[in-house]
């Protein structure tokens, strides 16, 4: 029973907290690296090389990860361009708006029903 509780409740929470903390750390690292003269495209390339080495075995199991990675790559270029002109605090705050945008899209595409049926 305790193992099921850990897998169902604790593991997703730990994964989400880890993802958010990693995102904030990378935003701060990016701002520091670019303020010292590193090109933003070089930083993105380095981060994707590290991610590719870690996640490459999974792309053979889940082929949709390639498309997700491509979309994430384009989004990260836009995000880092914004961080270069503003602050990592603003970028971290903007990443918290993802669930709100997901909810709005779910309502627009009628994935959430408010009628109570």
List keywords for this structure.
117 residues; 5 helices; mainly alpha; single chain; globular; 83% helix
Helix content: over 70%
The number of helical runs is 5
Largest sheet descriptor: none
Structural class: mainly alpha
For the terminal residues, how far apart are their CA atoms?
Answer: 33 Å
Give a description of the structure.
- The protein has 117 residues and is mainly alpha-helical.
- It has one domain (2-108).
- 83% of the residues lie in helices and 0% in strands.
- The protein contains five helices and no strands.
- It has helices spanning 2-35, 40-61, 64-85, 88-95, 98-108.
- Helix 1 runs antiparallel to helix 4 and helix 2 (40-61) packs antiparallel against helix 3 (64-85).
- The longest helix has 34 residues, at 2-35.
- It is globular, with a radius of gyration of 18 Å.
- The model has no long low-confidence stretch (mean pLDDT 82).
